[in-house]
Specification:
It is a single chain. This protein has 147 residues and is of the alpha/beta class. The chain has a single domain, classed as Protein-Tyrosine Phosphatase, Chain A (Alpha-Beta Complex). It is built from six helices and five strands, in the order ββαβαβαβααα. Strands 1-2-5-3-4 form a five-stranded mixed sheet, with helices on both faces. α3 packs across α4, α4 packs parallel to α6 and α5 packs antiparallel against α6. The protein starts with a strand and ends with a helix.
């Protein structure tokens, strides 16, 4: 199970199985965010099963489902709110980690990281740079414009 750190408080990963969720607190995580819609593919555990596994492990849990790469500013804002409100380190997932990574780029705490540093993290997380770069450019433009 590969987990990539994005900020001092946030990590991303691909879909964990339910037994892997039980190990997250031992790795220092306090919250699990699921960015995957239920029923996306056959055999997927689903948010109710993940919530139960997270609760049994002592984790906080949030479900912010996003379809494919159709990520809205509202999704990114909700994602950021969940991360900021979490009582400790957060790990977020979708099928591959891409949507969770992109939600962070769109609205998360980039912590003064350069574009090169963010793209390097994308490489480590297995996220295609061509998906990150336009969202990063839009984020930088929005911040520069005061939004």
């Amino acid at each position: 199970m590969s987990i990539t750190q994005l900020s001092p408080k946030l990590w991303v990963m691909a879909q964990p199985d339910l037994s892997a969720i039980a190990t997250l607190p031992q790795q220092g995580f306090a919250t699990l965010i699921n960015n995957r819609p239920d029923g996306e593919e056959p055999g997927q555990a689903g948010s109710a099963a993940e919530a139960a596994a997270a609760q049994a492990a002592g984790l906080s849990y949030a479900h912010i489902p996003v379809q494919g790469l159709l990520l809205s500013e509202q999704d990114a804002a909700r994602f950021r709110q969940e991360v900021e409100a979490a009582p400790g380190p957060v790990v977020a997932h979708c099928r591959s980690g891409t949507r969770s990574f992109l939600l962070w780029v769109m609205g998360g705490d980039l912590g003064g990281s350069s574009d090169a540093e963010i793209l390097s993290r994308a490489d480590k997380a297995g996220v295609k740079r061509e998906l990150v770069a336009p969202r990063l450019a839009a984020r930088r433009a929005a911040v520069a414009g005061g939004r």
